[in-house]
């Protein structure tokens, strides 16, 4: 039985995954490390510093910069990202998400947020959906970032729901991996090949339907 559904934020509730991409892409170009959307899949769900390390490794520049310089790069990316999220309004909720959350509530199922972003509270506030969440766990309170399961485990603990009664919803490979390691049922939003580890994949948020998830969950 499903007792809680725990959402990722960026790329699931709203399309901030695109803003992360644009900001990293800009920084990458400044560092002489251009990359495309295919490489970007490896950055989704991954913490800020780890994302930077992956970009530097991709450009064979892992050992070129000091820790101080790396922190400046990460800071620069974050400033660009913060500019982009200033424009967010409730209209930027992805299609069907609010109806889906309402449906979950009506079924007496709890809702959690498990985000690797230090900007999660700002984004949720700008979207005006804070009241849907029974708990919010963000990057400020977890030590290990996805694919480590910590953020999902912590959300379930705070909801007081056993892991096997939880469903996680993710758009990132690292996120789906984190959900599976947490012993939860994983719903992927996006490309079925990229999210092959998920128990159920829908191509977009408007296809998230509680009945479909309940059916797949009970067949699992
Ligand atoms: C989410 C996003 C990642 C981002 C990470 C850290 O997991 O999917 O793309 O790098 O959060 O975000 P932050 O806002 O703390 O830099
Ligand atoms: Mg995401």
Description:
This protein is of the alpha/beta class and 220 residues long. The protein has 9 helices and 6 strands; from the N terminus they run βαααααβαβαβαββα. 43% of the residues are buried. The model has no long low-confidence stretch (mean pLDDT 97). Magnesium ion is lined by residues 8, 10-12, 17, 44-45, 171-172, 175. 6-O-phosphono-alpha-D-glucopyranose binds at residues 10, 17, 20, 43-48, 51, 78, 116-119, 139, 172. It comes from Fervidibacillus halotolerans. The active site is at 8 (proton donor/acceptor), 10 (proton donor/acceptor).
Largest beta sheet: what is the strand line-up?
A: 3-2-1-4-5-6
Q: Which compounds are bound in this model?
A: 6-O-phosphono-alpha-D-glucopyranose, magnesium ion
Radius of gyration based on Cα positions: 17 Å
Average residue pLDDT: 97
Structural class: alpha/beta
Major sheet description: 6 strands, parallel
Keywords: Carbohydrate metabolism, Cytoplasm, Isomerase, Magnesium, Metal-binding, Phosphoprotein
Binding site for Mg(2+): 8, 10, 170-171
Enzyme class: isomerase
Cofactor: Mg(2+)
């Amino acid at each position: 039985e499903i007792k809680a559904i725990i959402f990722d934020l960026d790329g699931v509730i709203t399309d901030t995954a695109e803003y992360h991409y644009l900001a990293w892409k800009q920084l990458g170009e400044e560092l002489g490390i251009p990359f495309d959307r295919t490489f970007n899949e490896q950055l989704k769900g991954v913490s800020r510093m780890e994302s930077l390390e992956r970009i530097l490794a991709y450009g064979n520049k892992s050992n070129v910069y000091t820790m101080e310089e790396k922190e400046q790069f990460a800071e620069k990316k974050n400033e660009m990202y913060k500019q982009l999220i200033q424009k967010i309004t409730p209209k930027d909720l992805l299609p069907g998400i609010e109806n889906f959350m309402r449906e979950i509530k009506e079924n007496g199922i709890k809702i959690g947020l498990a985000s690797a972003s230090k900007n999660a509270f700002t984004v949720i506030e700008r979207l005006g959906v804070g009241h849907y969440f029974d708990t919010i766990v963000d990057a400020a309170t977890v030590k290990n970032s996805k694919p480590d399961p910590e953020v999902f485990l912590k959300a379930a603990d705070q909801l007081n729901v056993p892991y096997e009664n939880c469903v996680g919803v993710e758009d990132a490979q690292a996120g789906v991996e984190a959900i599976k390691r947490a012993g939860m049922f994983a719903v992927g939003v996006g490309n079925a090949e990229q999210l092959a580890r998920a128990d159920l994949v829908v191509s977009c948020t408007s296809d998230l339907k509680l009945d479909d998830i309940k059916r797949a969950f009970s067949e699992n």
